[in-house]
Fold each of these.
Amino acid sequence: MTDEQLNKILAESQPPKPSPALDERVMASYRKIARRPFWLRVFQARIPVPGPVAVLLGGLIAMTLFWKIPQPAMPPPRITVSVPAPVQEAAARPELPQPPLPHVRGAKLAWTPVSHPEWRIVQ
């Protein structure tokens, strides 16, 4: 068979008429759903929401509740202050003897800067 013949047969054919029992079953099912109380229909309703959008909305609601719920006030910290004992006068420290300076012939006791340094490379 060709496509033209199949199209001709399809155009001539008539689908069967629906039975009255089918109409009755569909209407009974609709009446059963429509008769439910409103609150039951609200709680059983389905709203298709993509997963990431649902997670985002849940996070926003959780953050809003977290920031809006008042947190209990922390008690102020207890600070204990003690008065220090009065300072007694310290005895005068004895003078320590100065160590003797090493004696090097021709050495001066004070450091003097060098005006013209000599640079040498030591290997």
Amino acid sequence: MISAARVTSWPARMRYALTMSHVRIAAVTPIRIACPVVVLLSLALSSAPAMAGPPAQPPVSAFPRAHTLRWQPQPQAVSYSIEIDCFGCCRTARWCGDVGAPYRIVTGLSRPEYHFQSTDPRPMRWRVWAVGADGHSRPKSPWWAVTAGS
């Protein structure tokens, strides 16, 4: 879930807040801009799979940890791909994906879940995307933390 973010491609005076239940556009200037409809249509047409679990929990120090990542199935998906990212595994104090070195990408998943074990104590995150019958990847979900309860 994104609670608030700056959109750099929009005018600097425009901010938005996005939650799983609604989209709110707030203009800082008194000018009224009819953007909510455009944003809602854009989100509906390019939606990524919705994460289904696990809920965010504080990490624990017991290793190895077994994880099960789940997401909502997509109607037109023939398979799913996931990316698991690690903080500090590729470069100190950076996510591997942010420095152009994906930590782990798994493709060809036929079910909306993935099981794996982790022996690394560093923070991890994951995201998922559907692949259609045409072989093209659909939009990626937002990042979610890999937690002790996953």
